[in-house]
Amino acid sequence: MAPYDVKAMLNQETSLWVEGPQAKSEKGASGNSDGFYSPKPQDPKKKPLTEGPKPPATGRRVAGGSEASQILNTILSNYDHKLRPGIGEKPTVVSVQFSVNSLGPLSTLDMEYTIDIIFYQTWYDERLRYNNSFETLVLNSNVVSQLWIPDTFFRNSKRTQEHTITMPNQMIRIHGDGKVLYTIRMTIDAECTLHMHRFPMDSHSCPLSFSSFSYPMSEMIYRWEDFKLEINENNSWKLFQFEFKGMSNKTETLSTLAGDFMVMTFFFNVSRQFGYVAFQNYVPSSVTTMLSWVSFWIKKDSAAARTSLGVTSVLTMTTLCTFSRKNFPRVSYVTALDFYLAICFVFCFCALTEFAVLNFLTYNQMKTRTSPTLRHARARARARARARARARARARQLQEAFVCTIVNKEGGDGEGQSSNPGSSQRSKPICCKWRRGYKKYFCMIPNCKGSTWQQGHLCIHIYHLDDYSRVVFPLAFFFFSVVYWLVCLYL
Fold this sequence. Notes:
Elements: H1 6-11, E1 17-19, H2 21-30, H3 60-77, E2 92-107, E3 112-124, E4 136-139, E5 152-154, E6 157-162, E7 170-175, E8 179-191, E9 203-212, E10 220-231, E11 242-256, E12 259-272, H4 275-292, H5 303-324, H6 336-369, H7 377-398, H8 465-490
Parallel strand pairs: 2-10
Antiparallel strand pairs: 1-4, 2-3, 3-8, 4-7, 5-9, 6-8, 7-8, 9-12, 11-12
Helix pairs in contact: 4-5, 4-6, 5-6, 6-8
């Protein structure tokens, strides 16, 4: 008897994976517990195969491999892969199912996301029926080109990659009743339109749409396999700023010049995580706004310090507004973050403007005090008397005066001053009229409450402008923040 050739045995191996009763019977005959067509492991205690003669390999395993090859050759001998199953009789029904390996990243700037999926398509092809003990024939990518495959394409994909390492990641499984399962792994860069009005408290539904490229509904119909979308949670999903919330699906009909096509779409629902944007935008802008209020506690005589602080706050807010748009799509509408940064910019600008107004008014007052026309006490007294008489007369007649004459803080009597006591026109207080019936009046003289007609009215003094700002600015910003977050989070 000729010695047994190991290379000959290895060359008889086939890449065909056979399932069914035949594979189960081989388990008992060969002692291999996996049921696959593979060489039996050699016991190290036994003599090597090359050291002695061995009878030729016989049994159901070799017979099964040749029988499967015969079945495959038979069903493919008269098979035309260019024609779909049931052509001219009924539409082909294709059941689809997905398995998601990974999702992400989602690019806000490009408005696209990446997904790695295994796509399952199942249909019946009566031409592939066979009567044999084999329940299923599992074939690799080499047979795909010899069978009819649905021309499914993803409508919103920008780039699609089919994995080919180490072999093309494709599989065909043929059942005895003609049922065909086609599996392929691919990575898709799909378009996802993002609506950024509520950014960064936004939520999105990223779609993945697919349909047949050439077969309308009258020839091919898609249906969900009970919408089974498996998610591999063991793999790391690269969503980064987003959190996965769930999935949904829909089926619609798309009318084109080539006919009506069935379009299947499923959505990945994600919401943005707030932490990154909060530390990058909200916290710096809020701190910068509060920092601009420090100027209210600096003396008005320190013009250099207050001006530099105000200008620095404004420039910092300008930089933050520009930085927030750096990795952001160029949308034409205002987002929630843009509105918040704009309000913070307004607060910083108003803090700088407050000092400009205060400095302007106090500078004019100091200039009036040093005027040579006010050197004589009698001239100043006559001017104050005329101003007081005119102001009281106007208040009694109109009841809607707005006294805004600037006087010396040390005046103590609450009357206005005129820059020229000899001129009756210049000695008049500067007034402006409000609507009839308006009950509150604003004056900027130190002792407005001392006069009878001014009691109960709101008095504003320019020297107390910093005191007012220390209260008004923080309160206004606090109420704005409360309203902003209530609207963004709950509406």
